[in-house]
Records
---
Amino acid sequence: MTECPCGSGSAFEQCCGPFLEGAPAPTPEALMRSRFTAFVRGDLDHIENTHASDVKDGFNRSAAESTANSVEWVSLEILNTAEGGTNDDAGTVEFAARFRQNGELMVHHERSNFRREEGRWAYVDGKMNPKGEPRRVEKVGRNEPCPCGSGKKYKKCCAA
Amino acid sequence: MERSFSCPTCGKCCYGQLPLAIDDTLAHADRFPLVVMWTPVRQGGRSFDITAELGITIKLRKRKLAAVQISPCAYLPPTLPCPELTADGLCGIHATKPLRCRTMPFSAYRDEADQADLLIPRSEWMCDTSPDAPVVYRDKSILDRQNYDAERAQLVRDAAILKPYGEWLLDSVPSLRMEIQKVAMKPSGGQVIVSFSTLIPRLAKVDIYAFARNQLPIMTAYAKKTANDPTLTDFHKRYADMAGEWGKIGGN
Ligand code: SF4
Ligand code: SF4
Ligand SMILES: [Zn+2]
């Protein structure tokens, strides 16, 4: 058995293989995994075909191919997924793809957005090195509106 | 207030770094050694607003902001002429010269009302600004504005590519963000040079292999040209690095 490059532990034929052949991926995560596998195998057709319609035109295939060829992929780790269920039309997948370039180990950490188009999941765009949800730690000024929503100044309301 | 200007084509302004519209980089990729130049302008600086509009902003310490101009450029030391400048001081590609050169002495990187100091020739420049020269700028308006407008329109179109490119690269390369922040805090300012290869993925129609084949011989030639000049060590190293990078991409 050839283990699937996406690191699922399953055989390629039972994992990303069918998606690279054109079968629709059931979830954004499955599509993301298959796109990683496509990068590993140099299958740029799959990368291009799984872009959302409005970003396809902006895709530079030669540059993606050149990058794919210049790196040695090491591993894929799915860090987080959100939405992307059977009733959703959008979903996000956060992942860390490790690779070696010029002898150095590097990480591509991205939170990708996917959209369902005519029943099939498609890659829209991504945020590199996303931080966690912003925590609200900033101080409220004493003369600012009170965060409780009373409409009064903070110092005359909850701060009093 | 009226300002006069005419150009007796001394060729002295055709030296050093030349900012280029994206289309001009592509049209002249076999001529100029190309980079992407990142230039921070701090809040309160005179061209902050226009720079933020055409480029991006970046947070600094103490809740300060810098606008960053992201400009594709021909990367040349101030002492070296444009490769197209002929021995008699004329432009060798006059019919197809970049928008930047057409708009001279004005600049679409600045607001129209903020052009006056661009009409003061630097020392050695032979521009005629005497009353005998034609009036070109009156009450903060450019009289023949065709080239200025064309360059500004191009910069706005380029911004649609350069802004998301800039945000993406800053997110991707945290050390670049730190470097820009450092330069922005310096009283004397400065620039950060980024390889043009980082921009190619954003230019969908550009074949990166053909581009690499164009840039490799140019970078190699400039690396050689700057090898023995101790004042150009930084430039030499850049050219050599970029020759190495394009060579790798092009498969040499
Ligand atoms: S292209 Fe022509 S006008 Fe522009 S800098 Fe070079 S020589 Fe001067
Ligand atoms: S320095 Fe002035 S006179 Fe000389 S070429 Fe440039 S614009 Fe013309
Ligand atoms: Zn797989």
---
Amino acid sequence: MTAPLLELRNLAGGYPPVAVFRNVNLTVAVTESVGLFGPNGQGKTTLLKTVAGTLDPWEGDVRVDGERLNAEGRMRSRTSRHLNYDLFRKRRIRARDVVRSGVIYVMQGNLLFPEMTVKEVIEIAPAASVGRSGIAAMRDMVDELFPRLGERWHSRIRYLSGGERQMVSIAVGLLALPRLLILDEPTLGLSPKLRVELSAAIAGIRTMGMALLIVDQNIEFLTGLIDRLYLFDHGTVDREIGSGRMPSRQEIMAMMFEARH
Amino acid sequence: MSADTFFFVGASGLILGGLYALMATGLAVVWTTLGVFNFAHGAFLALGAYVAWQVSDGSGGPATFLLAACVSAAVLFCLGYVSHFALVKPFERKKNMVLLSVITTLAAAAIIENAILLIWGPRDKQVPAAVEGSFELFGSALRYQDILALVTALAALVVLATFLRRTATGRSMRAVAQNREAAELMGLRTSHLFALTIGISTAMAALAGVFIGSLRFMNPSFGADPLMKSLIVVILGGVARFTSPIAAAFVVGLAEAFSTFFLGLYWSPAVLFGMMIAVLVVKPEGLFSRRTKTL
Ligand SMILES: Nc1ncnc2c1ncn2[C@@H]1O[C@H](COP(=O)(O)OP(=O)(O)O)[C@@H](O)[C@H]1O
Ligand SMILES: [Mg+2]
């Protein structure tokens, strides 16, 4: 059997010295769409940032195609009044390696680059995929998925609405030609109408054969877009809901409460 | 005051303004991008002038001056690029990074200044001008070199602005200035872009240094005064837009020229600092406001 596209093994991390998540095991297969659902403030974003390489993992591995992207072993967290350990301690994972491996993380509540226009941002977006074929096709795809962006082509990002900004963020992610696109709370603060529009766009991305890992608080939105669901609670992945029938909102809530009490 | 003197003082103010704009824009770009105030900027300026002096080897003329200026800018670009990895990057994950970078850049300033002293000695020097002589305009004599300084400064600023707006690298530099994390997640090489930003800023300082060194005399610590003026410019104008320090540079240049003429050389710093304090009191957000980062 081939290795999954993304595999997290016993991953732990946080904002030193505060541990936020631990013991996370999770896989995303090629062309699979996976959801991650859990209450607010439990560490989903922290987990995804660690996967994306902007935070160092404390323990465990991030593997893409079976290859480990992080430095081996545990992070030693030493502090001293006299020595700048940061000077000697290398990053344990590099965002650039993660991006290169084809895993793209679209940040939660992404402000992107407030003073740049949509055009400028979209034009520099393929930074990671320069020279690869398929960028032109992806540009057409982006135009098709998010026709609204064409209307706001020359507006600065900070004058866009939350929904429009979310679309730019996803478009930027797509232009890196990812194999796995990680979306962190894409519907946060969106109106129901926009949510439907976004849902259609993400469904469109899914049909392109791209793997997805989606975190969202809106369970109806989420279950409509995924093959498999992980429940995240108390800083770890609690349980996995297999590829059969997606449970309803009530069932999921019941499961989470069961686990807690 | 006659119209002639007014014109003459105004012209010298504009020339000063152009050089301050060149320097202050470099400082402002580094500040908005890295959140570091580069206290070594004045020392880089001085070093740039000395490199040009070395290259031109006592002879003037347009070709030699052009070569000297280009070599100086290139050398200082490389030094600036490297100094990101020496002065800023080791501390970038520290919480008190701003304070640490004050110390490291001050240290770099001291090291560079003393290196200049060791290599070239304490005696005053002057970079030979590209074009000697002067011409008469509205009854006052203007040196060709002065005009060349102003034109070059403005041209360099236009080139930089165009580079930041139009090229992929320039846009990436703005992106990393506005949201480092998002830039990283997009796959931009953040360290390279930061280093590039410092390199461009020190190259601009070098250019300013070459001209100041050709218009006045230079000694190992002659960068301190332009650094001080640029600090005033950056505080006065803020860094909200690319053009705000440029506009402020001309205000400071003119204010310096007129106060030097009317009140004397020793009073012009007092006037400038007075202006700065007034701005801080009345419109404090001009000071290092990072709320709007336009770059
Ligand atoms: N930059 C930060 N520094 C320190 N703690 C943080 C930071 N960001 C988030 N946290 C904390 O980490 C925990 C997990 O937050 P987050 O990962 O955003 O949760 P979720 O995405 O599941 O809502 C929270 O308790 C939050 O307060
Ligand atoms: Mg979150």
